[in-house]
Amino acid sequence: MMRRFFSYAKRYKKQFIIAFLCVIGETVFELIIPVLMANIIDYGVMQNNSIYIIKQGIMMAICAVLALILGVLYSRYAAEAGQGFGKELRKEEYERVQKFSFSNSDHFSTSSLITRLTSDVTILQNTICNGFRPLVRAPFMFLMALFLTIKLNAKLALVFIIVAPVLGIGLYYIVKNVGPMFRKMQANIDEVNTVVQENLIAIRTIKAYVRGDYENSKFARINQQLRNHSEKAFRLSVMNMPLFQYMMYTTIVCLLFFGSQMIFAGEMKIGELTGFLSYVLQILNALMMISNVFLMIARSIASMERILEVMDEVPSIKDCPQPLMNINSGTIDFKHVYFKYNQEAKENVLSDINLHIDSGSTIGILGGTGSAKTSLVQLIDRLYDVSQGEVCIDLHNVKDYSLKVLRDNVAMVLQKNTLFSGTIKENLLWGNKDASEQEIKWACKQACADEFIERFPDGYNTYLEQGGTNLSGGQKQRLCIARALLKHPKILILDDSTSAVDTATETYIKNALNALQDTTKIIIAQRVSSLQHASQIIILDNGRIHAVGSHDDLLKNDSIYQDIYYSQLKGVDL
């Protein structure tokens, strides 16, 4: 797992190496200082040699300045390496999400993916920026300081060697138990983000139903869960500080006691004891740094696992080895198609669908709520793949086409109109980034969108808020239709995409679409009047084809169509 994450730091190998060398150099100079200090006491102060004191003092100052310079350089290169690593990891994870099919996206909530792209990556990034220095410095300092303490006085070093394992066992217990708690924390952050996201998206509904108090209580409950898990995790993780301080002061007391006895016995000099204490403090400090690094790594591992869940998600829809790169017409065939969203589900959403749709024809799809109308058309451009059977375009299985070619030739206007923050023109260019001004105006005219765009002071440069909230529902639908027309698709699918426009506008759009002789049109609608002009109308009932025919044929022979038609006609008469 660690090797996989290090691969994202390859572009910053140079910065990591420089940072590593800076830490080593800084540590060496810091380790020299206690030796110089011991020499000043034993040979300068004790022998009243002021020149020696000045020389050693200058050397100490030089070592301190060099350590400072190396520390500053480390900060610079470690920041470049850490931030670069975060950028590469976010980029790779985001690109991975872009390859997900709808079924892959269904495995993760939107809020969870956002947390994994932001909070989890930031934790790893901070671990590198803040943990690289102690990770390199602590083991080197520990080994060097331990060597120097033994060299100064091997007998006194036994005190530390006895105390150190006790500290290590305590730190191991803390690190081992805090890891699972950090994973629970990140899961709670997902839940908090989910509640916030739902609340902000549905803020108008919440206010309309006066449910603010309910939403506040729901958020408070989730927020309290996050607090509880955070408290447990940090309560345990901060125990390393009092444990360290207790062992440090115990060690110092023992060293002062035994060291003073050795000084009185003439086995040790005062300067040696001072230097020895400095090195012991550095050893303990190194252990403390290692424990902090382990805590950061424990939290990072929880984030690593969450990120790898995204990275290891295998896209369920991908290109075949040698995909077809051209679609000549819009002929569509469904051959014994079965489909269900979850392969473990007992019931199929669609069952034994057999259809032939001629190129350039207009097909209507009608059915009650839950009859799988949207599920049917989503199989055409492989937003989902069939569970059994085949969907073919131009007599070739849709799985044989390049996904890019397939989706460039199949334009779908979904039930939920999606517009992005930016100008109207920028949103339209999603359909064809190379579209000319003339093409844009043509598409808007066909979708009857030009009449409201031209009323805006800035016209096509009018800025849209996120989600197009400064447009009406009908205006958003017409812009989405215009965006789809800019693709000049072989197949155009309108999934209840004129439900928010008035009858006159719908008629205009319908006539404009009829003029597209080379485009196969599939229209899903709830109103019979929207489909009367279709060459064929497909009646779906509980995921099965109930009937297929023209408006006149179905009105004469199909009971479901008759019920829908006369109920709507009665509604008009009233």
Tell me the helix content: 55-70%
* Uncertain residue segments: none
Shape: elongated
CATH class of the largest domain: Mainly Alpha
- Relevant CATH superfamily of the largest domain: ABC transporter type 1, transmembrane domain
Tell me the distance between the termini: 68 Å
List the helices and strands and how they pair.
Elements lengths: L1 H5 L6 H33 L4 H49 L3 H4 L4 H8 L1 H34 L1 H48 L1 H6 L3 H26 L2 H25 L5 H42 L20 E8 L10 E8 L4 E6 L5 H6 L9 E6 L2 E2 L5 H7 E4 L8 E2 H5 L8 H10 L3 H4 L9 E2 L8 H13 L5 E5 L7 H12 L5 E5 L11 E6 L2 E6 L1 H7 L1 H15 L1
Parallel strand pairs: 3-10, 3-11, 6-9, 9-10
Antiparallel strand pairs: 1-2, 1-4, 4-5, 7-8, 11-12
Helix pairs in contact: 2-3, 2-6, 2-11, 3-6, 5-6, 5-7, 6-7, 6-11, 7-9, 7-10, 7-11, 10-11, 15-17, 19-20
Structural summary, described in words:
It is a single chain. The protein has 574 residues and is α/β, with parallel strands linked by helices. It has two domains: 2-187 and 235-311, Up-down Bundle (ABC transporter transmembrane region fold); 334-573, Rossmann fold, CATH 3.40.50.300. It contains 20 helices and twelve strands. A six-stranded mixed beta sheet has the order 6-9-10-3-11-12. A four-stranded antiparallel beta sheet has the order 2-1-4-5, with no helix packed on it. A two-stranded antiparallel ribbon has the order 7-8. A hairpin with a 2-residue loop joins strand 11 and strand 12. The relative contact order is 0.08. The model has no long low-confidence stretch (mean pLDDT 85).
